[in-house]
Structures are given as C-alpha cells and as structure tokens.
Amino acid sequence: MTSFKPRQNIMVVEDNPENQEILQKILEESYNITVVGDTQSALLLLMDSPATYSLVLLDIDLPNESCQEFLRQRNLHSRLQSIPVIVLTTEDGADEECCKLGADEFIRKPLKHAPVILARCSRIIDLYENKNLVQQTEKDKLSGLYTIDYFFEYLKQIIPLDMGSDRDAIVINIERFRLINEIYGRSVGDQILAQIGAYLQEMLVNLNAIACRAGADIFYVYCIHQDDYQDLQATLQNMLAKFANVNNIRVCIGVWQYVDRGTVDPESWFDRAKTACDRISGNFTTSVAIYNSGLHTKHLREERLIHDIYEAIEHKDLKVYYQPKYAIQGDKPHLRSAEALIRWIHPTLGFINPGDFIPLFESNGLIQMVDYYVWNEAAAQVRRWKEENHWTVPVSVNVSRIDIYDPDLENKLCNIMQENKLSPNEYMIEITESAYSENSKGLIEVLNSMRSKGFHIEMDDFGTGYSSLSMLTALPIDILKIDMSFVRNMELDEKNKKMAELIIDIAKFLKVPSVAEGVETESQLRTLRKMGCDVIQGYFFSKPVPPEEFVKFIEKEKSLWEK
Length: 563
Known about the structure:
This protein has 563 residues and is of the alpha/beta class. Helix content is 49%, strand content 19%. Strands 12-13-15-16-17-18-19-20 form an 8-stranded mixed barrel. It has a 6-stranded mixed β-sheet with strand order 6-8-9-7-10-11. Strands 2-1-3-4-5 form a 5-stranded parallel β-sheet, with helices on both faces. Helix 8 (178-184) crosses helix 9 and helix 9 (186-207) packs antiparallel against helix 10 (230-243). The longest helix has 25 residues, at 114-138. The chain is elongated, with a radius of gyration of 35 Å.
C-alpha cells in the first residue's frame, strides 16, 4: 500500500495570460496552482498565506526587473529561502544574474514541452524537500543550534581537520529551569532558550566553536580553549534574570579542558564535562567547574561500580550486615531489634564504602535493584534466626526516596514477608526525613497504606530534612530516629544537646519511641537515658556485623531471659 501524499502548491508569477494558461494546463493535474501577475502580490501571499508552497515559477520578463528584486527579497527571509524558484526565461544573458541571486533552475520559453516542465518541477521540489528534511534534523527549532545527533556526527568529521589548536568541551546546564515553565509559562521558557541559542551562535564565531542543544535545558559547546568561562556564565545568568526573577535558577558550566582528540570519543568529552557540572549542582558558591584528574579517576571508578553491580548481586558480593539496637530504659539494656546495612566486598577492589556507591545508585536508579536485594536477604535472615536460634530479632530495612515512586512497592514488601513467613512487626521500614520533605503528600499516601498492612515505619536521620512541625503531626511514623550528628556532638556543643533533647520530646509528644544513632560512649548512653531516649544503636554496643557474628547478641539476650 502506498502512503497518501497531499497535493503540493505551486505559485506561478507571470503577467502574460497566454503563458499563465499554458502552465495552468500543464501543472494542474499534479499540483494546486496559484497564479499571480506581479512579484509584490506574490511576496505578500508567500509571507502571509497559511498555505505552504513547494515551488515558485517566476517570469524573468516582468517589468522593472521585478524578477531580480523578487530573488533579492527571497534571500532576506528564511521562510522564502526554503521555497525553490524556477525562472522562466528567453534571454541567455539574464540567466547569469538570476543564478547569482539564487535561482534554482531555468525553463526556456516558449513553453512547449510539457513532460520536461513537469519533470523539472518534480525534481526541484524533491531536492528541496530532502534538503529541508536534513535541516530539520540538523538544527534545533527553538535555539537554532545543532541537534545533538548532528552535533556529534559533525564533530567526528571535523576532528581529523582540527588537530592544531587546544580545544575544550563545555556543558551548560540551567538548574531548575522547569520552574520557569511552571511559574511563567512554557512560552517564556521557550523565549529564554531561543535567546540563549542566539547568544551562543554569536559567541561561536569568536571562539571558533560549534554548539548544540543537548537536552531541554542543557547545551554543549566545542570551542578553542579559554582560561576562564566566568564571563560566559555571568552573561547567561543575566539573560535569565531579565526574563524571570527566580533566585534558585542558575547557570552551571562544566568544562573538560584540552580534550583528548586522539583516543577519547566526543561523547566521552561531554560526559566528563557534565560530571564536572553535576559536581556543583546545588552549590551556589561555585558556578564553573573544571574536570580534572581527580574527577576523572572518580568517574572511571563510578563507571566500574555501575558495570559490576549486576555481577555483585548475582555472586552475592553485596553483604548485608546487621547493627543491633538496644532498649536502654530499665535496669539493663536489652536487644530490641537490628538495622540491615549493605556492604560491598568487591573481588578486586576490596571493601567499597557505602557512601561511595549508594548516592551513585540513587542518582541513576540502580538503588532500587540494590534495595530489593537487601530486603530479600534481610527477611531471609530473620527467618533463619527464628528457625536456628528460636529467637525473633525484628530488622529494619531502608527504603530510598526512589523506591517510593515504585507503584509496586507495597506488593514487593508484602510478598517478601509472605515468602519468609514473617509478620509486619518483625520487618520494619526506615525512610529518611528528607524523603518526607521532598514529597510529603505522595509519601504519606504510600506509608498510610503500608501501615494498614501492619508495617512499622521509622523516620531516619530526623533533624536534617527540615520538616515543619505542622507536617510532622500528619506523618505516618511509628519510630523517630535522631540523626547521629546530634548525638556525636551533644557533649561538645550545647546546641546539639538541646536538639537531641528536643527530638526526644517530639517523639514523646507523638507517642512513638525515639532511637539515637551513632552512640559510641557510655557517657552518651547515660545522657540519652536521662533525656528519656528509648533505644540506641552505635559502636558502643557494636559496629554492623555479618549475620554469623550477630548470633552472639541473640545468644546473650536469650541467656538473660532464661535467668
């Protein structure tokens, strides 16, 4: 089946009625024909008509050199430049001038050979349609810069011809640009992107550069090396300020200087520049970052971790350790529960700090896979302790802010409990306060549903996420955990001590237990007990340990109860 193709529009600019009639008869079976007798009417119609014209047939014998003037006007307007022009001529000498002015083809008068005329019209239309298609894929409509695909293709072609001068790869990112669209409307956002594109096009000449719009609010520039890009950042920031008065929208620039054109592909140049740009995201003291050897080493290591995480899960190189939590109100502390914490023992890199890989996987979404692995391992371990030691140790597992957006979260956790024959009070959920602050409404809906199934919810790192007190009363929580920074500094600084005491009082007001993390000394334990803290965890009792070492805490607790 052939696809439907609408009839194309052709304009005939001819003042001779006989020639008008001839061209009408030749072309009307294949095209929609518009006939005008002068160039002024033709130009007005081409500029203002909603119809799109695929070709103009222009008589060279129009009075007062109107043909040449039409071609000059065509060169001044981008809309007209996309329409091919065939000149109808009888004079050999006039062809040369029309050629210089941009005529695409010539047809000789008298107009006798209908098949030849049709063939030439069809060929020129097809050539321009193909050219316009290329231009549409070549240039971004909003900014006027290259599209990212064409940008990289063009780079690969010019690299062998451009080995003489030092070059930089630049990534320009407008942080929180979406706020402009939300506050002022998308039309204002589009105006800003167009202005930035126009400015970059002007700048490209001086920097011997090419640029593209790589994403909604991200631009790539490949240019001659510059020692400083602060002026570029300031200019773009001022352009934003003219359109929108939003304080936390800013321009960040990442640079990889002296790009390696011999061994590194262009996509990697900009990956490295973007790594530098991402490093200063949210840092309002720095707006330009340079990709250096330290970042390069970090980038390579992160790429290695991303690549190896699948194998780590398959081979169980990810280990789940458990840190005991002790209830401290009463004569003697007793084992209350444990927190499941991930550790990565890499076969060649050795121990990898969770602070190195957890934020990385949170940023790229892989944390969901890691969390699911931990949830399964922790639930299976609780079951094994029950079977082998005849003792239940409730374990809390961390649910990241990324997991909250998983519509199947509740089913996954319920299935894990069912598979291991656990009750909800044996398997608790920890969520950081910052997750509550970022998406309180959505999170409350999810957690209320989970609490209806019997899950106990712990708010982790309380005191660092800036929850409002009014929001706190609405949050579905069963346990409040004091961030370890307050505990570690409370004996050194009165403000931290008061914060720890305040959080314990908030827990009492909410009628939920309080848990203090990072307890390392007996003095801290005594202070927290005096404040009324219910549970503590930290190195005072134990660092996180593998499950086989955790058994000693179970055995000790059993012996106390047997006495």
